[in-house]
Request: fold
Amino acid sequence: MTGSMKPYYDRIYKGSMRSFLAGLEARIESGQGSFVVTANPEIFMMGKKHRQMDRALLDEHTMIVPDGIGIIRGGKTLGYRFEERIPGVEICEALLKYADEHHKSLYLFGAEKTVLEALVLRIRREYSGIVLAGSTDGYVKDRDRVFREITERQPDIVLVALGTPAQELLIYRYFSPERPGLYMGVGGSFDVLSGLKKRAPAFFIKYNLEWLYRITREPKRLKRFWDSNVRFLFEIRKEKHGNQRENR
Ligand code: UDP
Reply:
């Protein structure tokens, strides 16, 4: 990694989930476009390696929320304070409720076909007020073609579940703040929202151990966890101690 994480931290939303959602809803109502990045250490590490991800994170129109506990911990080390963690999957749930109540249109892009079908079914049953603008699974060949179609339809909300960094880079390529629509990369959230995969039990969520639960369920995540989270906190410490030496 080269360079400081502070420019990213300066741009993260530090307030409550509630006020963030209120802001998003106001933007949807006024037809303003939004691009939300739910940050975890992996995304920030990516930003330091890939120029386009770095640009996306530093773009004044990109809204970043602290999704992972690693982001909050690292931020504390560097002197940043957050009111609370804002998990992407909870933003999704709140947006579904809002879209249902206000008859907003929604496009779902990503995840496996069976997952997507289960989610569409759930939305039709439980959120019948939502206008489904369309849905495409995440294993199509031409993602750009799908995205061009989405931007032409201009849905109020577009959730993209292709995994990081593909989802963020794709959204950033097509996003324009002048066009209406809230665009958000949601990683594995469709798997949870569809009901096919359980989110961690309340205990793990309460004690910020959701990451541990995910590793125990999917051990192949361990390497990813090590490569991003553990190295991230190590780099953050280095950054802090480097700054302390400079200030002496
Ligand atoms: N996915 C996809 N197309 C791909 C690769 C992944 O649609 O080519 C989906 C996958 O089915 C899953 C999501 O992207 O629903 C990524 O989930 P993961 O839990 O890895 O994301 P995270 O939340 O950890 O970033």
